[in-house]
Amino acid sequence: MAKTKELSKDTRNKIVDLHQAGKTESAIGKQLGVKKSTVGAIIRKWKTYKTTDNLPRSGAPRKISPRGLGPKDSNLAVPDVSPLLKPVHVQARLKFARAHSDDPEEDWENVIWSDETKIELFGKNSNCCVWRRKNAVLHPKNTIPTVKHGGGNIMLWGCFSAKGPGRLICVKERMNGAMYREILSENLLPSARALKMKHGWVFQHDNDPKHTARATKEWLRKKHFKVLEWPSQSSDLNPIENLWELKVRVAQRQPQNITALEICEEEWAKIPATVCESLVKNYRKRLTPVIANKGKTQV
């Protein structure tokens, strides 16, 4: 029997968000194009373990070395993670890329880009390698501390524009729609003012259920915020993804508890405005491969 393709972490989290919003398993499955049994399994896992991550499996680890088992002229590498694209996503991405491929650079400079990400304490925030001497495998400098069942995590919300980083907020609880609107209320306009955005600036966020909820849309409408229409499953088109490497810098400082992870705000503030400017200045280069690949991610 062929192995079923694993759902992306973003899709698993959306299932939980929709469940908390009162949707039935059948309705969630239809909306996301996922089998009802799969939706039920993910919800049960979340209720039991408070996570949608894959759990460690039992059994002894494989001892055979992978060296030499791959095709000729290939290297063993960690696979890149990319969103699961369905035909509707591909079409929306292609439509977005074509619609904005000729937009002037000044338009992108007047966009506030935003996103959320999770940073884990003693977690696998990134894949990394170290140079080490023989018999120094367990030296503290050559290891990453871990705990058996994870050490907690916080959610980050951040925004930036071509002029530099905006505010970064650490959320220590699971973010819901009300909390998201509170974050926008307290931080979006102050960020726009600090970044000296021009009149008519545009706000970008993705299609997370918290963002597309009726209450959130109504709040944005009443505040007269212009929102960039965004294609689902398109994190590769959001330049803020390049700024989340701050998780690596936070890990290098070896925080010892969740409170210490607030040093991420310090690391965020250190991001040079020139980096932000470059990401936005080259934005159209992100759209070119989307058009060339007819909406699919770059191979």
TrEMBL record:
<dbReference type="Pfam" id="PF13358">
    <property type="entry name" value="DDE_3"/>
</dbReference>
<feature type="domain" description="Sleeping Beauty transposase HTH">
    <location>
        <begin position="1"/>
        <end position="52"/>
    </location>
</feature>
<dbReference type="InterPro" id="IPR052338">
    <property type="entry name" value="Transposase_5"/>
</dbReference>
<dbReference type="Pfam" id="PF25787">
    <property type="entry name" value="HTH_SB"/>
</dbReference>
<dbReference type="GO" id="GO:0003676">
    <property type="term" value="F:nucleic acid binding"/>
</dbReference>
<protein>
    <submittedName>
        <fullName>Uncharacterized protein</fullName>
    </submittedName>
</protein>
<dbReference type="InterPro" id="IPR038717">
    <property type="entry name" value="Tc1-like_DDE_dom"/>
</dbReference>
<feature type="domain" description="Tc1-like transposase DDE">
    <location>
        <begin position="111"/>
        <end position="257"/>
    </location>
</feature>
<feature type="region of interest" description="Disordered">
    <location>
        <begin position="53"/>
        <end position="73"/>
    </location>
</feature>
<dbReference type="InterPro" id="IPR057667">
    <property type="entry name" value="HTH_SB"/>
</dbReference>
<dbReference type="InterPro" id="IPR009057">
    <property type="entry name" value="Homeodomain-like_sf"/>
</dbReference>
<dbReference type="InterPro" id="IPR036397">
    <property type="entry name" value="RNaseH_sf"/>
</dbReference>
<dbReference type="InterPro" id="IPR036388">
    <property type="entry name" value="WH-like_DNA-bd_sf"/>
</dbReference>
